Amino acid sequence: MINIGLIGYGYWGPNIAKNINANPKFNLRYICDKSADRLVKAKLLFLSQVEYTDDFNQIINDPDIHAIAIAVQTSAHYSLVKQALLKGKHVFIEKPFTSTVDEAIELDELAKRLNLKIHVDHIMIFHPAIKKIKELIASNQIGDILCINTVRINLGPIKKDVSAMWDLALHDLAIIDYLSEGSEPYFVSSVGEKLYNPKESLSFLSMRYKGFIAHLHSSWISPLKERKLTIVGSKKMIIFDDMKNSEKLTIYDKKFKFVLDKNLNYDEYSVQTHEGDVLSPYLKQEDALYNSIESFRKSVVENHQSFSGTAQAIRIQKILEKADREAVRD
After folding, report:
1. Would you give the DSSP letter of residue 134?
2. Residue 147 resides in a domain
3. 119-146, pLDDT tens digit by residue?
4. What is the pLDDT of residues 235-269, one digit of tens each?
5. Which letter, b or e, does each residue of 119-133 get, where b requires 16 or more Cβ atoms within 10 Å of its Cβ?
6. How far apart are CA 151 and CA 200, in angstroms?
7. Which domain holds residue 145?
């Protein structure tokens, strides 16, 4: 049994608390938040089974606590994670891991030196649809990946400490990283706009990987909420629409083929399209956040690094920092 304390009971904290509490191999011992009103809301759900505090130090100084879950603004991540590690606690933390790559590397080295685990909640790689896509790619049913296009847009919430790209595109970078076994792009470019915010609330991120290209659209200023991933393969094509209530994943038997014909006098070949069946495979009903928390638990008890750990976080944040440097601005 892992005794764990939660730091932050704001936007996402209640979901983390709910899923930790649903896992019988965790014992949610503390909920911490600076807001008294938020702690009152937590007490209405968890009653006396949890201790409530506004002091982070009370949790990290408790020798019976094995792990800390952190769901606060990104600018506070580095300090809280470092303090937790120095007190011997494993860490589950919301994305983005830190504000800078240098901070992420330092915490990674500290955790390894202390033999502690850090799990970054790149939640989408634990979604059953993404796991299914991974299986399809691994079994060569999709063929070679040619391009990936994502749209992750909605109206707010606008965050002050990170841009829409760091908040939204990060999900899709984690997906691409997971599906491509940690491949890194050799070309990165972006364009964004700071609207209603000191950081970009709208961005377009383009990348070239070995064998495929990717284009990620992120926005907090859209009238509609969309969460869509399109993958074009040499054999089949995939659309994952997370906003659908059912049949979120659709596989299209569509592709191109070259037709050689000696009678062609305008070129050496002709390109023809092939359109076959459309399939929506069965997806097991699973909670991605629960899966992420369980993956964290396994990394702790089995003493191995989580795929959604510091190495992946650093790869992703290197892309984001490069995109910030290469961004096209006025």
Report:
1. H
2. yes
3. 999 999 999 999 999 999 999 999 999 9
4. 999 999 999 998 999 999 987 776 666 565 555 55
5. bbbbbbbbbbbbbbb
6. 16
7. 125-287+318-326
